[in-house]
Amino acid sequence: MGRYRHLLSVSLAVTAFALLFASCSAGTSDNAGTTATSAVTPPPTQMLTLATRPQKILELMKARGEQDEAKPSLKIVSPGKDAVINGSKVEVKLDLSGDLKGYMPHKDPATGKGNHIHVILDNQPYEAYYELGQPFELRNVVAGKHTLRVFPSRPWHESYKNDGAFQMVTFTVKGGGDASKPTTTNSGQTMANNNSGATPPPREGKDVSASTAGEVDSAKPLLTYSRPKGEYKDADADPIMIDFWLTGAKLKGDGGEYRVRYIVDDDDPKFVDKWEPIWLSGWIGGKHTVRLELLDKEGKPVENGGYNTTSREISVVK
Ligand SMILES: [Cu+2]
Q: What is the value of pTM for the model shown?
């Protein structure tokens, strides 16, 4: 009882302080307050600059011990290579091995963060898969040929880039893909609630958008877009990391001849010549497009099933 009273008095004090502070600042900066909230202010121009690896991540790395030197190796147990799956639900089962140095996917319930696997159906944005002990369900997968790409990732979504970390498989969905159509709209958008009152599925999974595989040749150079993705808020939006996976191609700065070109919004193209994440700062609030492309030594896009040029829309909330 005493503890609750203490908490109550603390929260009252915090509230009182906040109110006091709010009224003070409103009283002393009338002009600043009104202009800043104007909805018709023209958007400021965005000037992105390369940033160093954020201090916050350096500290996380330190706290993780040797984990960032791990060489996690993945195996796609299911779906099998060229498997034919009846029905719209595809169970992804992975086997993690290799020199893990303590690396283990798991979501910390307290922070909602942790090591995880990036799971990519066709060329859709990745889904995060945390608990490998049970399968990850790709739901509402439409009939046709599909690709699945997976690779291990850190809590801040930077991928492991060692040999064996990346795996890809092609499979086919038959029949059931169309039966699940009522849960998706014509455009492939997933309806908000497709469980018709049933309890939500206990497994990790995702109602995926409608897509089929590109004509990808896994023996050819392949760029797999990973980050950025989704929404970035406040401190997480400055800087924002660009990260990707590369197979069958070595970049110029790593002794090869390929380049990765990135274009943000309508900015001039920029290049990544070493296969490592980069961080960009200077984002303004709103929606942005990030496009990654794999280029050959002549500077021409390398074609591989359409996957080597990928654009994603992200949103920055500030
Ligand atoms: Cu991630």
A: 0.80
